[in-house]
Amino acid sequence: MIRTRASCVSSLFIVLVILSVLLLTGTLFKTQNFDENQHLVSEAFHECRFWAMISPSMPESVAMNQLVYGEQSLKNLGAINYNGWGLAYFNSCEPTVLRGALPANSDPAFDLAAQELAESGSKIGVGHVRRATSGASDIPNPHPFMRLKGGKWWAYGHNGGLSEPALRELIGQEYLDQNPPTVGDNWSDPRVVDSDLYMLYILKCIEENDWNVTAGVAKAIRNITKNAYGTMNFFLTDGETLWGFRLGNTLHYYYNETSPSYAVIASQPPTNNDEGWIELHDYNFIILKMNNPPIIIDKITAVPEFTSLPILSLIMIATLLAAIIYKKTQCRFDGKTIFKCS
Length: 342
Known about the structure:
By secondary structure, the protein is of the alpha+beta class. It is 34% helix and 22% strand. The protein has two domains: 2-29 and 306-337; 43-159 and 228-297, Glutamine Phosphoribosylpyrophosphate, subunit 1, domain 1.
C-alpha cells in the first residue's frame, strides 16, 4: 500500500513539474482564437498616414525633415490624405495640439505648426494626415485623438478602418455614456469617427488591466479581431512612452542611439533614403521609452490573457513542495522503515 502511494506521489511530482514549466513559459494557455491569415492588406487604399517621435529633446532638423522637407514627409503625404492634418507635442502633463482642415501639402499653417513642434524641445511629438473613411470629413483632422484617463493625457492616431457597431458593442453602453465622443453630439451621431471608438476601447481594456498598456492592448486586439476585424495600425502615447501597432497597413520604425538620441514610428519612411528604417510585421507591437532601444513584441495577441499565470505557477510550486514533504513523511510506517527514500 505504501509503495503504491509513493508511486502515485512520484507521478504527481512529474505532472506538477510539467505544469509549472508550461505555466511559466506561457505554453499552457494560447490565445490565438482567430485566423491570423485573414489580415487585410490595403496598400492601394492606404487610409491616412501618421508619424510619432520620442526623444529627450526633439531634434529640430530631424523633425522638420520628416514632417516637411522629406520626399514622403507628412506634409507631402497630405496630397493623397487630404482631409486635414493634426500635430501634438508634450512638454508637460497637458499636450499642445495643432490642427488644420486643409490638405497639409497646400496649407501654410502646417509648416508653421511643424516648426513649432520641432522647436519645442518636447519629449514626444506626433502627427497625422487624414483620408476620411468614417464619420465627419469636413472638419479639421480629429487625429490625434486626445483623452484624459487615469490622470494622464493620451494621444492616439489610427491608420485604417473598423466596424463602428461592433466597436460600440465591445465597449458597452455604460462606458460609452461615461465617455462622450470627440466628434459628434453622441455615439449614434453619423459624424462619429471609428478611430475614436477604437481608441476608447483600447483605453477601456488598459484601465481594466490596472493601466498595464501591453496587457490592455493585447486584450483589445484579441477581441476586435474576433468581432470588428479591419485595418488597425495605431500609435498611442501618454506623454512618457510611445507605443505602436501594425495590422493591415505598413508601419516602420527608426532608432538613433547616438546624439541626438531619438526613435520614430511612421507609416512609411519620410525620405527616399530609408536606410536604418525597419519595417514591422502584422501583429507587431512596439514600445519606445526615453533613451532605451525599442522593445518589439512579435505577436501582441500571444501575450497571456490570464494575468494570474504567475500566481498559478506559485500555487503549482507550493503544491509540488507539499508533495515532496508528504512523500518523506510516508517513508516510515509504525516506526519501521518500509522502504528506503532517495
